[in-house]
Each structure stands twice: as structure tokens, then as C-alpha cells.
TrEMBL record, chain A:
Predominant place of localization: membrane
Listed Gene3D superfamilies: MetI-like
Species the sequence originates in: Streptomyces himalayensis subsp. himalayensis
Record flagged with keyword Cell membrane: yes
Transmembrane segments: 20-41, 62-80, 92-109, 146-168, 188-208
Name of the protein this chain belongs to: ABC transporter permease
Taxonomic superkingdom: Bacteria
Family, per entry: Belongs to the binding-protein-dependent transport system permease family. CysTW subfamily.
TrEMBL record, chain B:
Protein family (similarity comment): Belongs to the ABC transporter superfamily.
Protein's GO biological process: amino acid transport
Protein name (Swiss-Prot/TrEMBL): ATP-binding cassette domain-containing protein
Assembly information from the UniProt record: Homodimer. Forms a membrane-associated complex with FtsX.
UniProt KW keywords: Amino-acid transport, ATP-binding, Cell membrane, Membrane, Nucleotide-binding, Translocase, Transport
Organism of derivation: Streptomyces himalayensis subsp. aureolus
Family matches, as PROSITE patterns: ABC_TRANSPORTER_1 (PS00211), ABC_TRANSPORTER_2 (PS50893)
Function: Part of the ABC transporter FtsEX involved in cellular division. Has ATPase activity.
GO MF annotation list: ATP binding; ATP hydrolysis activity
Segments forming domain ABC transporter: 2-247
GO CC annotation terms, alphabetical: plasma membrane
Length: 264, 344
């Protein structure tokens, strides 16, 4: 197979992957964010404490998360047909991808939101804020760096799942790798898809970490800084220096990290 | 301005009951700075959280500015509209500042105004005005992480004032600060109290806080208020634990057959040469074990621990003489039973 043959195949596959992952991420965030916040609010000692609701949501999330994606895809076929009118193609793949990702993201949101200092919630209540104000002005903005990291993790997981969705004819990079690379022994093509996936995932992870760190830098002390995956050194622990140290010193301490972030 | 009656808070967890507040009656007059002091676990935090109903009292009522908040609260655990409106008129500052790290200083101060639904332009005008009041107008665009502890607390105070409250609750506002910063924050609270006529209820475990800014104080122990009153009343109360803690004098008797007497001077009596008069009149030798002068609630107060030869029975007459001079006398080792009634 020559490059001129591979090229249109690959560009279509890339586009398909991004299309599926993009839409399912969007749906996962729209669905998972409220669900995750609700898990925190309804928990014991939460603002909307409701043990029954909390247990029910928690169980649904657990069941959905414990299901292997390939099984979920098959199990949801009826539902998918009802929504999109078909069970084949990239639109059809979005349905199980999104449904698989919602509980995944919800759990990550739950963890992130739980990290927010209860004192901030109390402060807003003391100002006369209601629960919605607390969610909007405190829980979400204060956990935003962690939420971005969570979304990044979700996107990366979805790229992995989308390769499996290739098996129902959804297209995408995973589909190319299986059908051409594996079944037709086009080893070269397979390695190219693997390389593309690796690059895409690295770029997404990097962008996510960069955004999270950027937000975190100004925030400073709430929670620990999300660590860059590429850095094995513990430079990030410097990010928690007490506020008394001037900003410049903190910047200087971070210089090694800053240099690395400029590499790409 | 703030009145609590029979305030009781019981925490239940895993079948165990912990009584944090046990029938607290508190009365804070308009325009005063009232300090509640006590050790950790005495129930101070529960008390201040019950005042704006962040904690629901198990029993009792809370009235702030003539409004019965416990009646507004309703039955459910969530704060209804009426309670939230009442809360917006009570400012609160916290030990750990509780500033939103994702917002700038100015946006933090604007937050209560956003909740009140004030328009954008008006919000930023008000926020800058308040930051100017607390001396931080140059930090409006900074993030809390870039500020020192004292500056953060100033932002906290500016934020608490955004809703034009009549009452400010201070939950250990200076406990996380160093002594120097503590003084400047207390001075700020005092200034606000005088300039804006703000009523301040503060809880603390530091006697210095009470000494430097409080008009009145209460001592809490095991969920109860043991003593309360204006600081000068407390100092004038024989046997008052709070007065002794506010103004400690030390020194032990040098022998068994001695009488140790604490003499407290304030106002007029501070200028009288009572000790030399006592010595001359009764021809006794007086040794001074310890003495201190200080300013409490803006008044000069002196305290002296003296030792008279002989047991208490032998010194009834000289002690009577001291009392006649208008001094407050506490005889160590003698229970001031009768006089303790006056503290109530």
C-alpha cells in the first residue's frame, strides 16, 4: 500500500475519530458534570443531603462503569437505533461512547468537587447564597483545574473506546488499524495509526494539563497542583509554597517546569 | 442587637450525643464589640454559627436586629429566601479567610453583591470603595494566593462589609495571623466599629483580642457562658475568672502564715497612695509579689498582688481599710462566695 493510497484513508479516519470523540465528550460533560455535582450535594452532610437519591445515582454509575465497553455497545444497540435510526456508523457509535463516558466523567467530577474547601461553601451561605449559587460560584469555578484534568482523562479514554467502536463499522483510526493493519497484514499502516493515536493523545493530554496548570497557577493554594505527565520530577510541589513568598520567587522556582512546557 | 436565649445545640453521631451549646443566653448591644472567649471545644464556633444559622440550633431562639432568625429558618435543613436575605445583612469573617482562589480580590469582594443582584457597575464601585476602606485598593486585581495572611483577612473583612451589614461576626479572625498582623486587623475592626457603628460579635481564644478591642466579653466553658458583662464590670467583679485571665498577676505566698491579696485599681483609686497609707496606719510590712498596669477597653487599670504578715483572720481590719478606699480586693485562698453573686 502506497502513501497516496493510505493518505485519504487516514485523513477520513482521523476526522471520524475526532468527530465521535468530540461529540461524545461534549455529551459526557453535559451529562456527567451535573451528575457528579449531584453526587456530592446529595451525599451525607451535603447541601441537598438525600441518602436514597445518592445511593441510586451511585449504583447506576457503578453498574455503568463496571460494564466492559464492548458489551455496553451491544447492550445499547436497541437504544442506539431508537436515537439515531441505525446501529452502524459514526453517529451510532456516539451513543454508547457518550453513555459509557457519562458515569466515568461523573465520578471524576465527584472527586474534583469534593476537594473544594467546605469553608468556601460556608462563606457563600453566610452571604445569603443558595445551593445553586454555591454550585455556580464556588464548586465549579474552584474545582475547574481538576475538572479540566478530568475532562482530559475522559477524552483520552474515549479515544481508546472509539477504536473499539470501529468494530461496529463506526470508522476511525481503530477501525483502520484492525481492518487494514491486522486483517490485511498492512503492518506499515497499522504502525502509522498507532503513531497518530499516540500523538493525538499526547497533544490532548498536554493541552489539558497546560490549561489546568494555567488556571491553577493563579489559584495557588486550593488543593495540590495537577502534575504534568511528562515531568517525573517533583517541581510541582513548589506550587504549594505559602503565599508569603513573593510571586517572583515562585516563578523562579517553577522555571524548570516552564521550560519544558515550551518544548512543543 | 444580637440576642440569643436558651440556645442549645446537640450533635448526634452514631447514637452518641454531644452538647455543644447548653442554653446560651447572650445579649450584644448595638454598636459594641463583644468578645466570646473560651478554649477549643467550649462551643464558641457553634455559637457564632448558630447566630446566622449556618448551624441550626436544637432549641432556643436567635434574634438579630429585631428579627427572629430561628422563626425564619423553617423546618427543613435548607435556608429559605427570608433567612438568606437576613444572612446577607450579617457580615462574617473567618479564621481561614475563605476567599475564592479562582477570583481576584475585587471579584471576591463583589461576590456578596452578585448574590444580592447588584448591577456590574455598582458592584465594582462598591468593591473598590471597600478595598480602599481596608487599605488594599492597590491589590484589586491580585489573586488571594498572592496576598499575605493579613491582607487576605482584610479582603475577607471588605467582603463581609459588602452587603452593608449592621452586624459583623468574626470567627477567630486573627487566630491564623502573627501578633503584629493581629494588632492591625483588630485596629481595623475597631475603626469599622466606630466609623460605621458596626456591632461586632467575635469569638477568640486569645485574651489579648478581648483586652484590646472588646467593650464586653463572655467566658464560655463546656457549652455554657460562665461569666459575661462589660469589660470594666468584669474587672470590678471580685473573683471574676475572666478578669483574672485578662489581667494576670503572679506570685506565691512566701510562707504559711501570710495573706495574699490582689488589689485592682481603676479610675480615681489608681492615684491614691493606698499602700503606704496602709503600711503607716496599721504599722505592717507589706511586700509586693507582682504588679502590672495595662489599658483595658481604653481605661487604665492596675493590679497588684501584695502579701501581708499573718493569716486572713489577723488581717481583716487592714483589708477592710483597702476596701473602704474603693479598691477591689481579692483575697487568695478565700472564696469570695457572697460577692460572686454580683457577677451574674
Amino acid at each position: 500500500m502506497t502513501w497516496s493510497e493510505m493518505q485519504p484513508l487516514l485523513s477520513q479516519a482521523c476526522w471520524d475519530t475526532l468527530y465521535m470523540v468530540g461529540w461524545s465528550t461534549l455529551i459526557a460533560i453535559v451529562g456527567g458534570l451535573p451528575l457528579g455535582v449531584l453526587l456530592v450535594l446529595t451525599d451525607k452532610g451535603g447541601l441537598l443531603q438525600n441518602t436514597v437519591l445518592n445511593k441510586v445515582i451511585g449504583q447506576i454509575v457503578n453498574v455503568a462503569r463496571s460494564m466492559p465497553f464492548i458489551i455496553l455497545m451491544v447492550a445499547l444497540m436497541g437504544f442506539t437505533r431508537w436515537i439515531t435510526g441505525t446501529t452502524i456508523g459514526r453517529e451510532a457509535a456516539i451513543v454508547p461512547l457518550a453513555i459509557g463516558a457519562i458515569p466515568f466523567f461523573a465520578r471524576l467530577v465527584e472527586t474534583a468537587v469534593r476537594e473544594v474547601d467546605g469553608g468556601l461553601v460556608e462563606a457563600v451561605q453566610a452571604m445569603g447564597g443558595n445551593t445553586w449559587t454555591v454550585v455556580r460560584k464556588v464548586l465549579v469555578p474552584e474545582s475547574l483545574p481538576s475538572l479540566i484534568s478530568s475532562a482530559t482523562t475522559t477524552v483520552v479514554a474515549l479515544i481508546g473506546y472509539s477504536a473499539m467502536a470501529g468494530t461496529v463499522g463506526a470508522g476511525g483510526l481503530g477501525d483502520i488499524a484492525i481492518r487494514y493493519g491486522y486483517q490485511r497484514f498492512e503492518t506499515g499502516l497499522m504502525w502509522i495509526t498507532v503513531a497518530i493515536l499516540a500523538v493525538v493523545i499526547s497533544v490532548i493530554q498536554f493541552a489539558g494539563d497546560y490549561a489546568a496548570r494555567g488556571l491553577h497557577r493563579r489559584g495557588g493554594r486550593s488543593g495540590s497542583a495537577p502534575k504534568l505527565r511528562f515531568l517525573r520530577t517533583e517541581t510541582t510541589s513548589v506550587g504549594d509554597t505559602p503565599a508569603a513568598i513573593p510571586a517572583q520567587a515562585t516563578e523562579a522556582d517553577r522555571a524548570p517546569a516552564a521550560e519544558v512546557t515550551k518544548v512543543p | 442587637m444580637i440576642t440569643t436565649s436558651g440556645l442549645t445545640k446537640v450533635y448526634r453521631s452514631r447514637g452518641r450525643e454531644v452538647t455543644a451549646l447548653d442554653g446560651v443566653d447572650l445579649h450584644v448591644r448595638e454598636g459594641e464589640v463583644y468578645g466570646v472567649i473560651g478554649q477549643s471545644g467550649a462551643g464558641k464556633s457553634s455559637l457564632i454559627r448558630c447566630v446566622n444559622l449556618l448551624e441550626r440550633p436544637t432549641a432556643g431562639t436567635v434574634t438579630v436586629a429585631g428579627q427572629d432568625l430561628t422563626a425564619l429558618a423553617g423546618r427543613g435543613p435548607r435556608a429559605g429566601k427570608a433567612l438568606r436575605e437576613a444572612r446577607s445583612r450579617i457580615g462574617m469573617v473567618f479564621q481561614h479567610f475563605n476567599l475564592l482562589s479562582s477570583r481576584t480580590v475585587q471579584d471576591n469582594v463583589e461576590l456578596p453583591l452578585e448574590i444580592l443582584g447588584v448591577s456590574g457597575k455598582e458592584r465594582s464601585r462598591k468593591a473598590l470603595e471597600l478595598l480602599d476602606l481596608v487599605g488594599l485598593s492597590d491589590k484589586a486585581k491580585a489573586y488571594p494566593a498572592q496576598l499575605s495572611g493579613g491582607q487576605k483577612q482584610r479582603v475577607g473583612i471588605a467582603r463581609a462589609l459588602a452587603g452593608d451589614p449592621k452586624v459583623l461576626l468574626s470567627d477567630e479572625a486573627t487566630s491564623a495571623l502573627d501578633p503584629e498582623t493581629t494588632r492591625s486587623i483588630l485596629q481595623l475592626l475597631r475603626d469599622l466599629n466606630q466609623q460605621l457603628g458596626l456591632t461586632v460579635l467575635l469569638i477568640t481564644h486569645e485574651m489579648d483580642v478581648v483586652k484590646s478591642i472588646c467593650d464586653s466579653a463572655a467566658l464560655m466553658e463546656k457549652g455554657r457562658i460562665i461569666e459575661s458583662g462589660t469589660v470594666s464590670e468584669l474587672l470590678a467583679t471580685p473573683g471574676s475568672e475572666l478578669a483574672a485571665a485578662l489581667f494576670p498577676v503572679s506570685g506565691d505566698a512566701t510562707g504559711d502564715d501570710r495573706t495574699v491579696v490582689d488589689v485592682t485599681f481603676h479610675g480615681e483609686s489608681a492615684t491614691q497612695p493606698v499602700i503606704s497609707q496602709l503600711s503607716r496606719t496599721y504599722n505592717i510590712d507589706i511586700s509586693i509579689l507582682g504588679a502590672a498596669m495595662d489599658t483595658v477597653a481604653g481605661k487604665q487599670v492596675g493590679r497588684m498582688r501584695i502579701e501581708l504578715p499573718g493569716r486572713y483572720e489577723d488581717n481583716v481590719v487592714p483589708i477592710g481599710f483597702l476596701r473602704e478606699q474603693g479598691l477591689q480586693i481579692d483575697v487568695q485562698g478565700q472564696e469570695p462566695v457572697l460577692l460572686k453573686e454580683g457577677a451574674k
